[in-house]
Amino acid sequence: SHDLRTPLTALIGQIETIRLKGDALPPDAQAHLLDRALHNAQHLKRLTDALAELARLDSPEFRAQPEPIAIGELADDVVQRFASAAQQAGVTLGVEYPDGLPLTRADAALIERALSDLIDNALRVTPSGGRVLVRALREGDGVRIEVADTGPGVASEDQPRVFERFYQTSRHREHRGSSGLGLAIVKRVAELHGGTAGLRSEPGRGSAVFIDLP
């Protein structure tokens, strides 16, 4: 409730200011308030969407629908959807996977959702001029999907808890525009496939979040 209340309180305050002061506000002040109100409304939508998705994935009745898919081609398709956002952010977005990567039994819709969350998060934390690289590769007897960025990395003390729900503070989440649930969804998607999610990060030198699928 705290995470919902923070942007909602700000949104109400911004709308009330516009309603009460109306034309007394200079145009640039009105525009600023409207921009902030829209930002908070979008943040609320991301949060409620993520809550609904987690509730769906946590349901005892929910089952993944695995089928043989080409993970590399799937990753390539998802990357293309973020090409415009990456260009606007000034971030180089690429994808790599080897020829002959075997088909993997996975629920394509769930993998797309997890990969989209990882790319979106990586683009948010990577400064202009940085790079985000999506990779699919063999890992032991399975396949690894990895999203690496050149952002600020994750503090050592935070790394063991990044997949916990709502771990980030509301202030940090608001600054990044994320719901604080993206990595929890990624972890749940991995678990539904009998796999695991993990993180490699060096503070100041970026991060790599991965999903290992059997």
Brief summary of the model shown:
By secondary structure, the chain is α+β, with helices and mostly antiparallel strands. Helices cover 50% and strands 19% of the residues.
Description:
This protein is of the alpha+beta class and 214 residues long. Helices cover 50% and strands 19% of the residues. The protein is built from seven helices and seven strands. The chain has helices at 2-21, 27-58, 71-81, 83-89, 108-125, 170-176, 182-192; strands spanning 67-69, 92-96, 104-106, 131-139, 142-149, 196-201, 207-213. The strands form two sheets. The chain has a five-stranded mixed sheet with strand order 2-4-5-7-6. β4 and β5 (142-149) form a beta hairpin. It is globular, with a radius of gyration of 19 Å. It starts with a helix and ends with a strand.
Sheet having the most strands: 5 strands, mixed
Structural class: alpha+beta
Instruction: Characterize the overall form.
Output: globular
Could you estimate the helical fraction of the residues in percent? Answer: 40-55%
Task: Give the low-pLDDT segments.
Answer: 169-177
Terminal Cα span: 36 Å
